[in-house]
Design goal:
By secondary structure, the protein is an alpha+beta fold. It is 25% helix and 23% strand. It has two domains: 110 residues, SET domain (Beta-clip-like); 85 residues, no CATH class. The longest helix has 21 residues. The chain is globular.
Length: 205
């Protein structure tokens, strides 16, 4: 009896994991996706850690973790490819949905062979150049992160030059996020700004 022919590991999958011209490995569509379609699970193999635990905080340093349902931190098993391999784009065609086990969903039509990209939406403190980036988008911002400074926290509500400058920068970024359907990042910025203001207030006490 002839031996059964082994099948390529991802031959029937809707996506392909391979080297990307953007950065490292990426996720590529093998078929057409329409807005709302689930493209790929974020982490087909994963473990969950309690949000706020020391282990979860340490895992966050990898920049691959995903907060799910405001209670858990999903940590991908990086030996198994998944949506965690999606590259950042300043004009993404997909987005992360963190409920449940996490998944990548289509935002706008994705064609076979096209790379599936997401918007990372990182927010940093006093480190504006932490995440330089050059994607294929003509609207590339040059950096992935939106940075909050101590001065932003001190003067965000002031009727001062610093206050006006921060609000103008924030509004410009907010308009951009709405345009690329990533408004949820505004909640992250508001939360992080509140954290920074609380830290500064505590340091003055």
């Amino acid at each position: 009896m002839p031996k059964a022919r082994s099948q390529p590991r991802f031959s029937l999958a809707p996506v392909l994991f391979k080297d990307s011209a953007i950065e490292g490995r990426g996720v590529f569509a093998r078929r057409r996706f329409e807005p709302g379609d689930v493209v790929v699970p974020y982490a087909p193999a994963q473990r969950r850690l309690e949000l706020g635990s020391a282990e979860a905080d340490a895992a966050a340093e990898t920049k691959l973790t995903l907060v799910s349902e405001s209670a858990w931190v999903i940590v991908p098993d990086t030996s198994v490819p998944g949506g965690w391999l999606c590259n950042h784009s300043c004009r993404p065609n997909a987005a992360i949905y963190s409920d449940g086990e996490g998944q990548i969903r289509c935002l706008r039509p994705i064609h076979p062979g096209e790379e599936v990209t997401i918007f990372y939406g990182w927010v940093t403190f006093n480190d504006p150049e932490r995440d330089p980036w050059r994607c294929a988008s003509p609207r590339c911002r040059g950096y992935i992160n939106f940075d909050l400074t101590d001065d932003d926290a001190r003067h965000c509500e002031d009727d001062t030059a610093l206050g006006h400058a921060f609000r103008a920068r924030f509004q410009d970024y907010a308009d951009y996020l709405v345009d690329i359907q990533q408004e949820q990042v505004l909640d992250v910025i508001a939360s992080r700004l509140g954290q920074l203001r609380a830290q500064l207030a505590a340091s003055r006490a």
